[in-house]
């Protein structure tokens, strides 16, 4: 993914890397996808940042199943 501002390339790289640069994105008024922001906030629960809703749902379901098997 690439981010341009006033005709200049500011960032270029994999989407996960670009979206992790929150301060730089804010300067050009770009917000990461909501699912990326949510999954980033849940890192403490062993959720890795996701760009697709289906990937996020699958990871959460996997964690719920793993958690329920411990009880």
The percentage of residues in β strands lies in: 5-15%
> Count of helical segments?
4
Share of helical residues: 40-55%
State mean pLDDT (0 to 100 scale). 90
| Strand segment count | 2
How are the strands of the largest sheet arranged? 1-2
What general form does the structure show? elongated
Q: In sequence order, what are the helices and strands, one letter per element?
A: EEHHHH
Straight-line distance between termini: 42 Å
Largest sheet descriptor: 2 strands, antiparallel
Q: Which radius of gyration do the C-alpha atoms yield?
A: 15 Å
Give the class from helix and strand content and strand pairing: alpha+beta
Low-pLDDT windows of residues: none
General description of the model:
The protein is an alpha+beta fold. The chain has helices at residues 15-19, 22-27, 34-41, 53-69, and strands at 2-5, 8-12. It has a two-stranded antiparallel sheet with strand order 1-2. The protein is elongated, with a radius of gyration of 15 Å. The mean pLDDT is 90.
């Amino acid at each position: 993914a690439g981010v341009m501002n006033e005709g200049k390339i500011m960032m270029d790289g994999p989407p996960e890397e670009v979206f992790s640069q929150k301060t730089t994105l804010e300067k050009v008024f770009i917000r990461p996808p909501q699912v990326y922001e949510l999954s980033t906030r849940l890192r403490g629960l062993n959720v890795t940042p996701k760009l697709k809703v289906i990937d996020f749902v699958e990871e959460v379901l996997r964690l719920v199943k793993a958690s329920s098997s411990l009880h």
